[in-house]
TrEMBL record:
Molecular function terms, GO-annotated: acetyltransferase activity; lipoic acid binding
Cofactor: (R)-lipoate
Entry EC number(s): 2.3.1.-
Family: Belongs to the 2-oxoacid dehydrogenase family.
Region (Disordered): 78-100
Keywords: Acyltransferase, Lipoyl, Pyruvate, Transferase
Pfam families, per the entry: 2-oxoacid_dh, Biotin_lipoyl, E3_binding
Record's compositionally biased regions (Low complexity): 83-95
Domain annotation Lipoyl-binding: ranges: 1-76
Classification via SUPFAM superfamilies: CoA-dependent acyltransferases (SSF52777), Peripheral subunit-binding domain of 2-oxo acid dehydrogenase complex (SSF47005), Single hybrid motif (SSF51230)
Organism field: Spiroplasma syrphidicola EA-1
Protein name listed in UniProt: Dihydrolipoamide acetyltransferase component of pyruvate dehydrogenase complex
Amino acid sequence: MVKFKFADIGEGLTEGKVGAINIKVGDKVKDGDEMFSVETDKVNAEIYSPCDGIITKINMKVGDVIYVGDVVVEIDDGKGDAPEASPAPASTPAEPVEEEKAAGVVGAVPISNAVLPSRGLPATNNNAVNNEHILATPIVRKMAADMKIDLSKIKGSGPNGRIMKADLLAGPTSAPSASGPSIGGAPITIPNIQVSGNVKREPMSSIRKAIAKQMTLAKTVIAETTLIKNVNVTKLIEIRAQLKGQAEKQGVKLTYMPFFMKACAIALKEFPIINSSYDQQSEEIIYKEYYNIGMATDTANGLMVPVVKGVDQLNVLQIGAVINDLATRTRDRKLKADEMRDGTFTISNFGSAGVEIATPVINFPEVAILGVGTIEKKPVVNANNEIEISSILPLSLTIDHRLIDGADGGRFLQRVSALLESPALLLL
């Protein structure tokens, strides 16, 4: 008898929602047959039988949320009962898996759920904080370090008193019970939501919960500011029109995004601070010498951000082909987990939704994001002091002000603008 457990199907995932069940009790299955599918905050995944046998029990139904380690299907493989798993040594008790996932809007950040010794927090009032014997996962310890919270003052609500992210946001145990999220240990009171009419409640989807966590993390940790510039893209429109026919012959639907990505890749090489991350634990800047650009993609299930890898090594049509493929599979939720991670910079095209200007949220741990608005025809004064109608594109660059000064952000934005105004440079 095989007791099939739901396993981690992508770095750090701990739960999934059952999308479809293709088996029933009494069915004969073969090794590799698809049994059911799971929807996660990143991708849809098909789960296959590990052996030949007969389905004897199904411990789930469509819509259920299942967790890593749950026995979801039992299969009679003709070999009798499976032996009990060996217990963990007494000196190292087995710990339940914390119900957290590597949340990501643009690709998740791989996060292990193993309980590791703390690297410690910055000293407070000249007294070092020792958190080594506190149960908390690395993501909780990292958040605590970023927020300068002493974990010893937090009461854990998880298994065996483990500290969860919700406990961290709730603040120190000495805080008033009405307190909710906190910054630097100072509680913020969140009033209860009062309603006076008919309402409908529904649970948040896995993707929406992941987005909420990632946005909260970004807005809590990053000191951001936004720079805005209008760009004359009249020539860009012309050159795209000239290339569309050639692109279609190669099976590529050529949008403006490949030009935006190529311009950003060139500028990122010239301004490496924009392609970096800040390791707050070691107080080091990590300069990334690869250029993987994410594109925020609107789907029926929520915002997802597939990543085009090695943009600097591709030409515009090659970038377009990759974008077409990723966009299609993103909407169909057929992306692989590694296609939404390792981004170094992100572009958000809210212009496709008819929005002219917006200030997008940085995808932590990246340090900048480019927002692209709607292209509109406007009167401008040309070099001969004549008024002419041109196509104007508003760009907004949100930067992490801890690392990037406004002047450096401005120079990067100016370089991207110059490349889009002279798009022939992107084809060299």
